[in-house]
Amino acid sequence: MRLNVAISDLRQAGERLGGVLHAGKCSPRLAHIGTPLPLYFWVLFSTLLFDVDSDGIGLITVNRPDKLNALNSTVIAELDSLIHAAEDDAAVGGLILTGAGPKAFVAGADITELADIDREHGIEMAKRGARVFRQIEQLNKPVIAAVNGFALGGGCELAMACHIRLASPTARFAQPEVKLGLIPGFGGTVRLPRLVGRGRALELLLTGNMIDAEEAARIGLVNRVVPAATLLDEARALLRVMLAQGPVARRLCLRAVDGALDLTMDDALALEATYFGDACASEDKAEGTRAFLDKRPSVFHGR
Question: Which class is 45-243 in CATH?
Fold first, then answer.
């Protein structure tokens, strides 16, 4: 839901307070004083919550707990807008994505939107969602999925589009589309085999069976299982470690891994060599190596 009135008043208030409006409250964002304010300052999302802490960690919460955070066209559109804004915001170093409430991360698509869809609109829907999820996957900032419950269908696909997945013991994963006479449309048949292997992926895709968090970790679908009470804290701690490293190297690692997936070994090695050269030419590399030799902490500037 967009604010159609008094946008300039909101911007001026934010500039005076150094804050970002989030669900009716103001969180400190001193980095934005005197700079253009990001989209999420003047847009109130109807299906998402967003906040950024003092470490530059943005928390995106899919906020439809009464629908188990099911994906619909509004969620997809708002994710699109929010990811674009976060990518362009220098105050955001990385993102955590989770679901509201204790039951679900994202429990699949909204079936009411699927019931009467035809072929043409099905293709359009799949392409739209796949584009947004690909945007998350290609983000130059690390994205961690904190899976706090059901991650079914599109929810599992959303988690797989994130760079890293942490899960609570209550998390459950499935691609149950075949039970509805459908197949995944947001990348499930593409990312699942790459994460868990062809055989395991086909078993999950063709049966629609649900697996628990421990099994998801065992087969490589999630990085690890952590206590539900500390899930977000663990995600933030991991992201803080990443954000303490060289920003240029961080971006290049993300690009190299993503870019190499569709290349031959020789072409992938050549791509890595190119990015290694780019890192060598950066101010971050000069600072990092000098700090190591001087036995002092590095002070990176992302250049």
Answer: alpha beta
